[in-house]
Amino acid sequence: MLGGLIGQGLGRAAGSAGVSSYFPIADVAGTLTNAIACKLDPAEQKQAANATIEATRGETSDVEPPPVGASSSWTSETRENVSGTSTVVARNDNDQGGMQCITVSDVIIVNGEETTANKRMCRKPGQARYALMA
After folding, report:
1. What is the Cα–Cα distance from 48 to 91, expressed in whole angstroms?
2. CA 43 vs CA 25, 51, 63, 77: distances in Å
């Protein structure tokens, strides 16, 4: 009970200080880093994940990796002053095990505060989507 009261107090203090903290939803676990997901509400997490999926699609097919510079942006449908972009910033087509790997940079802006997180994403031969690597 005491832990719950402390957690509620901290949550109120963070909310009154203008700091938002969310939990990553299961739907985005293979696509978003916690650094990004924790600043977005569940609907925004889905928008950010969809932007990553869009940016990581190959131009001609799901077989070809996306070009460096491929990007997709989104604007929150639930809060004002929240937006983001996912951009492919590097490719490593010769990863061990036949996987194609890329580095994606996520940038979100929440009420004027920018957060950037780079993530390594890979896909095994035959897979259509890239997944976040630990």
Report:
1. 21
2. 10, 13, 29, 8
Q: What is the pLDDT of residues 48-77, one digit of tens each?
A: 999 999 999 866 556 678 999 999 999 999
First to last CA, the chain: 34
Q: Is this model's pTM higher than 0.85 or not?
A: no
Within 17-120, where are the H helices?
34-37, 42-55
**Domain residue extents for the chain:** 24-132
Query: Rounded mean pLDDT of 98-124?
Result: 94
Q: What does the pLDDT read at residue 70?
A: 95
Burial of 125 from C-beta contacts in 10 A (0-12 / 13-18 / 19+): exposed
Q: Classify residue 88 as exposed, middle or buried by CB count within 10 Å of its CB (0-12, 13-18, 19+).
A: buried
* Token output for 14: 């963070």
The amino acid at 21: S
CA distance linking residue 105 with residue 91, whole number of Å: 12
Spatial contact of 110 and 10, defined as CB atoms under 8 Å apart: no
- Strands 100-110 and 113-123 come out as antiparallel
